[in-house]
Amino acid sequence: MKKKVFISYSHEDKVFVEWLKNNLQDLGLEIWYDQQEIQLGDSIKQKISLGIQSSSAFIVILSNSSKNSNWLRYELNSALLLNAISKGIKIIPIKIDDSEVSSDLSNYLYADFSKNREQGLIALKHSLLQTNKVDYEFQDWSGFDWKKFENLIYDLLNSEGFNVQRTPPTRDGGYDFVAKTQNVFGSEEKIIIEAKFYKNRKISIDVLRSLYGLASIENVNKVLLITNSELTKSSRNYLAHSASNIVVWEGHQLIKKLFLFTDLVEKYLSKKI
């Protein structure tokens, strides 16, 4: 199956995107962008959402024109949210003029096409073909306590590309981090994030109900719960039927995400294979 790549761009940059598409053909990629994929009568948001979800890499074209593109902002936020909440597609910014890299992309390495297209193309192809392999293995969580786990989550979220801030220490029932994004209309939106480190417990339905209440109090559309543990059967059922605004990274998902970032593995895991 071909690797799918989604390109997000302002229509003022269409000529560059056509050039880029033609110069990526030798990689055998399936490239998704609205000029090809969205037909008359299609739901634009639905098509874009499906395109992003089915892609393994997301290229965003950064230019002075793209700053004012609401659709590019919508696509970017969708990809960033998917990157944090789901499996994590690879996000690759491309800078094609003297525009500044926005703060929500500042943690990503970008390919610079503004001075030399050929050099930029080489860097982009390398990034698209690069695999993330780490010569470490995960043993267990015995070397962690709640503080080390919280620091791990903070570093991981920043590596995922979100502008994350810690919240002041609170009693159980609060949340640990806040991530801010902008919606398609340019308004700021907030995601609250809770890290739960357990030695011998699972995530109960009471934890999820507490987070559901917090979402209402804080007036947020999405809550992300990250744990080294797993959900109970009843909490999994509650999540599926009554709390669609809560997303959970269980321990096995967290480990997979961690191994995408070599620096974090080296920092938090010590045993080599």
Describe this structure in words.
The protein has 273 residues and is an alpha/beta fold. It folds into two domains: 4-129, Rossmann fold, CATH 3.40.50.10140; 146-268, Trna Endonuclease, Chain: A, domain 1, CATH 3.40.1350. Helices cover 39% and strands 18% of the residues. It is built from ten helices and ten strands. The strands form two sheets. It has a five-stranded parallel beta sheet with strand order 2-1-3-4-5. Helix 7 links the parallel strand 8 (188-196) and strand 9. The radius of gyration is 20 Å and the shape is globular. The two termini are 30 Å apart. The model is unreliable at 36-44 (pLDDT under 50).
Which keywords apply here?
273 residues; alpha/beta; Rossmann fold; Trna Endonuclease, Chain: A, domain 1; 2 domains; 5-stranded parallel β-sheet; 5-stranded mixed β-sheet; 18% strand; globular
Task: Give me the secondary-structure topology.
Elements: E1 4-8, H1 14-23, E2 30-32, H2 34-37, H3 44-53, E3 57-62, H4 70-85, E4 90-95, E5 111-112, H5 117-129, H6 146-159, E6 164-166, E7 177-182, E8 188-196, H7 205-218, E9 222-227, H8 233-242, E10 246-249, H9 251-258, H10 262-268
Helix pairs in contact: 3-4
Q: Number of helical runs?
A: 10
Helix content: 25-40%
Instruction: Order the strands across the largest sheet as they lie in space.
Output: 2-1-3-4-5
Average predicted local confidence, pLDDT: 78
* CATH secondary-structure class of the largest domain: Alpha Beta
Low-confidence sequence ranges: 36-44
Q: What is the CA-CA span between the terminal residues?
A: 30 Å
Largest sheet: 5 strands, parallel
Structural class: alpha/beta
Q: What is the CATH homologous superfamily assignment of the largest domain?
A: Toll/interleukin-1 receptor homology (TIR) domain
CATH topology of the largest domain: Rossmann fold
Count of domain modules: 2
